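This is your field. Pick holes in the following sequence-structure pair:
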Amino acid sequence: MTSERNRKVKKWSIDLNLNENDAGYKCIEICPLGLKKVAAMEKQCQSQANKQFSTELTPKEKQRAAAIVQKKGQMAFGLATSPAKSIMMSAFMMYMSGSNLNMWSINTIGMAIITPLTALFGINGQFARFEDVDGRVNLQTPKIIFAFLNLAWLCVGLYKMSTMRLLPTYSSDWSGRIVWKEMMEISSIPPL
């Protein structure tokens, strides 16, 4: 009697695990709450498990990781202060080029304008090599210093352009935009 019962139970048992070859697998895959959500939940659980493993470091590994973070911070500050050297060299070159309009002075001024602008627009790309996965390296202060020094370099180039009268800073530079009134009538009687 028990053997008949076991046969019936085995006969009616249902396997709830779906394989890729099963008929309902495609339907569940299309469903928004189907396998995609399950896969996302599995990735989240795996990332949490990896974080637990990463927190269980030996003291020697923790010391090594702290040294790497400190070294990356020092290298980021070295990159942040590098425009200061370029400012001084560029200012000296602009001084030596004089105030005459020639190829040398225009090339020097062009480089003093273009180089800081390209550095400012590519600031995240330049500091990307110092970024850490966990965000332990503080890059905000070096980026601010880097941006400030490049803005100072840009100001030096703009000042040189102003002294060479290449920037429209005086009212006489805008005299071409003044619209003069045309006299409709001319008379010999002076106005009152």
Remarks:
- Residues 140-163 form the longest helix (24 residues).
- The chain has a mean pLDDT of 78.
- Helices lie at 2-12, 25-30, 35-55, 59-80, 82-97, 103-121, 123-126, 140-163.
- Residues 101 and 124 are 36 Å apart (CA to CA).
